Amino acid sequence: MRVSRQRQDRLVAILLRDGGWMTAAALADLLGVTPRSVRSYVTAVNARVPDHPVIASGPAGYRAHPTGAALLRERDQPPQSAPRDRLHRLIHALIDADDGLDVYETADAFHVSEATLESDLARVRALVREGGELSLDRSGPRIALVGTELARRRLLSSLAHDEMEDGAFDVEALRRVAGSTSVPAEAFGRFKSALAAELGDLGYFVNEFAVADVTLHVSIAVDRASQGRALETVHGTPPAEQERLAEVVGRLAEAALGVTLGRGDRMHLASLLLTRVVVPGAGAVGTAGVDPVVDAAVRAAVARVSNEYLVALGRDEFVERLALHVQNLAHRAREQAWSRNPLTRSLKTTYPMIFEVAVSIAGELSERLGMSIRDDEIAYIAMHVGGELERERRAETRLTATIVCPGYYELHELLRSSITRSLGQAVEVTEVVTRVDPDWKAIDTDLVLTTIEPPTPSESTVRIRPFLTDGDVERVMQAAARIRRGRRLSRLRAELERYFDAGAFVRGLDDALGEEGIIRALGALLVERGVIDDAYVEGAIERERMSSTAFTDALAVPHALRMTASRTAIAIGIADPSVAWGDGRVQVVALAAFSESDREAFQTVFEQFVEVFGERENVQRIIRRGTDFTGFLDELVAIIGR
Length: 642
Description:
Distance between the termini: 45 Å
InterPro entries: BglG_antiterminators, PRD, PRD_sf, PTrfase/Anion_transptr, PTS_EIIA_type-2_dom, WH-like_DNA-bd_sf
Domain PRD: 289-395
Organism: Microbacterium barkeri
Protein name: Transcriptional antiterminator
Shape: globular
Largest sheet: 4 strands, parallel
Low-confidence stretches: 77-81, 281-287
Strand content: 5-15%
Keywords: Repeat
């Protein structure tokens, strides 16, 4: 049996993201295969780069070798017979063939059977149907792609972006999939740098991801124009700002790429730029230039979410910058020119609460502005939200500390200065004790940093040297992290014991039910107990359609955006083996129903629950030992309390 190339690549991506050792069983759960298949994938991956191991094997399982993975990307050119690559080749052929293709001749040229090609064509139909701008016309053995040149370019861009996974943004790989290789990558690198620099000089806020994305579209435009397929039509009279950016793109393309783009291509690329950049100066004069409807929608969404989630997002500068971003987003939605975000997965996994706030904002904007907002676009909103909340977060996570340093000239002052300089973001020194016999029991700060031995060691007391060393700094940071984590998990433990119900626990979720079926099954258990109604279940399904709630590789937390439960409760479903969810697979599904009176608990439970299940060892332990509700709760509480 031929090993799946796509699953091999997914295996490498998982190992690179994790960075440590993973067992075959854990990898099998994530891939939805057997441990035996994982071992086959490892063998096949290493065979693709025989002179350098890509995946190392050991007693603890498997680990990716970064150098080997880089060589894999450099050297490995997948055969065109591989399904995904054959599909890309077929789409390119259809896009380039003005008169269509002969099915029999194309099957011969691809060295596949006619049945295989017909299967590939069915996949092409699904892709073009999803985009809604193109169609496949069939007349006997001939098949043709029907649609505008702009729609064809969007399909090429979509193919390239679908290659992005787990935060990877390999511009050269994207260009290769898009079929745009007529100009060397180095030239596009020069173009991208020059474009970013000139946009900055013109006063634009430069989003590096957006500039790279526009560079990809420039690459496609160059290739299509060189084939005589330039965009010639310019509708109406473009605004002066678009004309200015069109001149910039055209001039830089000629200087860096040696290509002269026509007016239609220049104006199209300028339009893409306008939907991806923000003028910082606009924020200085409020939301001037922003559509009043967009401005009102953003302010309403921010106000509701701030109240719902008890977060501080009302600062004018934040709202104005977000409104500018949303206006660009609305333009992208109209043009179907979506912007991809390679950080989507890591934002969702690492900052689930921030991402959830962004989903809620996106949901409100969708209703008010009548547009759908994709996961990648939600991630950009999450970046705005995260930046705004970071200052508040830093203040909340800083711990107080007392320095115990017997007085000797200005030694204690020097030590305080060193601690403030090295640990100021994590620790705030509120008191300095210079006695050799301090009243240890009277010290009530989070940490005690002492140069003398305390009478009774404790987790909050850290012995340091009079002249602070790197080792001292590291020990203090570790102690601070333990205290912060302990407090969070203690709160979580108290909350979870209130919210779980033995009657809302299911082991053995059926993969055939799908996401919505599982949500309905778990929701029915809470409906029976009077916690929620059917409308809440439908709300959780609607929330899932907006953006997958698989916040880690093992856990999904479906829930509605509105906190309408009569009381807060969580229904748990255990899947062994894992079930498909979003783009991956999970082993635990926690349907969370929150009430209005427990808004503060939402943050505690939601974020820390995700943290517990973000550690692979925790998941495996709970799955293995949580054979019933009592066992599940015992293991969860034990993990939290350790």
